[in-house]
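hey so i finally got around to running the thing on that chain from the lab meeting. sorry it took forever, my laptop kept dying and i had to restart like 3 times. anyway pasting the input first so we r on the same page abt which one it is
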Amino acid sequence: MNTAQFTPAGTLTAEDLGAVHLIGIGGVGMSGLARLLLTRGIRVSGSELRNWPSLAGLRALGGTIHMAHDVANLDGVDTVVYSTAIPADHVELAEARRRGLRVLHRSEALAATMTGRKTIAISGTHGKTTTTSMVTLIFQQAGVDPSFVIGGEISEAGSNAHHGSGEYFVAEADESDRSFLLYRPYVSIITNIDEDHLNTYGDYANLAATFADFARLTDPEGFVVVCADNPGTRELAVQLRSEGRRVYTYGEAADADLRLTDVASSARGVHYLATVDGTSLGEMRLPVPGRHLGLNSAAAVLTAYHLGLPVEAARSALAAFPGVRRRFERKGSVEDITVYDEYAYHPTSMTAALRTMREVAGDGRLLVVFQPYRVYRTRDLHAELAAALGLADEVLMLEVFGPGEERGPGEGGAALLDSVDLPAGCKVFLPSFDDVAAEVVRRARPGDVVLTMGAPPISLLGDELLEALAREAATRAAAAGGTDSPSR
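ok and heres what got predicted. didnt touch it at all, straight out
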C-alpha cells in the first residue's frame, strides 16, 4: 500500500467526517475506531457478516450495525472507512466511490481523531497491543485521562478505545501496510523489528527502512523509545542517534537506558528491577506471566518516566494489569482442563507465548489449536512456524486464514503440520472448525492446558471448547451416577 494515495495526517478532524460507515466494523481495529467516534458524538454505522463480541457494545453506544454488506447501508453516509483486508471491488467500497463519498483507510480516519493531541504511537512486529494497553493504564493511573485506540480489549475493562479529556492520544500503529506513516507522533515506541509482512515490503531491509521512516516522523520535541535487546531496534537506535534524534532504550542489555535485572517469570506473573541511567525505580510486578511482557512493560515505564509521570503510577498500574483479551486470556476450566486464547501468529511471538504457557501448564501437557494467519506468512516463515509449534505436546492444525489469498501447491495448514517435529499421533489436521471440539475432548485430560492460537476467527472457539468439555464431563458423571457439575 502506497501511503502517498492517502490524505496527509492532520488535514482532517473527526468532526469533518460527518456520518461515518465502517466496512467490517466488528474487527478489533475497526471496532476501536467506531467506539472512539461514537464517544465523540459522531453518527456511526457499519456492516458485518460475523456476530463479533464487540458489536453489542457498539450498539449500546448508538451505533447502527447491518449484518450484511449492501449498497443501501450507505444511504445518509458522508464518509466510508475500509481496512486493508477489504478488496477494491467490495460492493460497499465500490458503491461509495461511485457515489463520490469521502473514502478513507482506517488509518486516515484514525489520524483525523488525533488532531490537536500529543500522540504516543506504538509499533513493532509484535508486542504492540500489550504495550499500548500498558501505556494507557499507566497514563490513566497518573490521572491524565488519555484518548486511546488499542488493537485488543483490555481485559475486565472491556474496551479498546476511549475519548479522553487529556492532552495525550495513545494509539497502536500498524506497520503491516505502511499505514503507520500517516501519523505524526509526539512519542514513537518501536518494540522490535523482525521479518514479517514481506508481501508488503519485499525484504527485511525495506521493512527496517520503513520503521526508520516512521521514527523520523516523531516531533523534534518528543522522543523515540526502542528495545535494546532486539537486533533490529538496536540498530535503529544507533542510526537515529547519529542523526541527532532523541532516543531512549530499554531491555536487559547492559547499555539500555532503562535496564531490567533480576527478571523472573512464573505462572503467578513476572517481576523485575528497573534502573534508569543508574537510578533505581524499584521493583515492577505484573500479575500475568511472560518475560516478554515484562519487556513490553519496560517500554511503557520508560515513556511515562520521560514524560514526567510518577513512577508510582507505573508501578501501581502494572501491579493491577489485567491483561489483554486474546493475550494469555484464560477462558475457563473444566475438570482441571484449562482453556486459554492467544493471538500470536508470528514465530517469535508464538515461541514466547508457548514458553510462557509451559510455565502455566506446569506438569500438565500443552495442547495447541492453531490457525495460521496469512498464506504468505505461512509460506515465507514455514520452518520458523513449525519450530515454534514444536514446543507444544500436541498440535491441532486448522487451515490458513488468508482472506483474498490463494494457496499454491504444498502451501497451507496441512503442509505446515507435516513439518512440526512431533510424533504422528501428537498432531492432526482439522479441515473444519466443526471438528475441533470433539478432537479436543478426545485428547485432553486433567492437568492439561488447551491453547487456541493464531488468526482472529479462532478466538471464537474457546467458549465452544469449554462447553464441549463440560458436556463430556456431565455425561461421564451421569453414567457413573454422580450429580456434580463441572466447574468453569
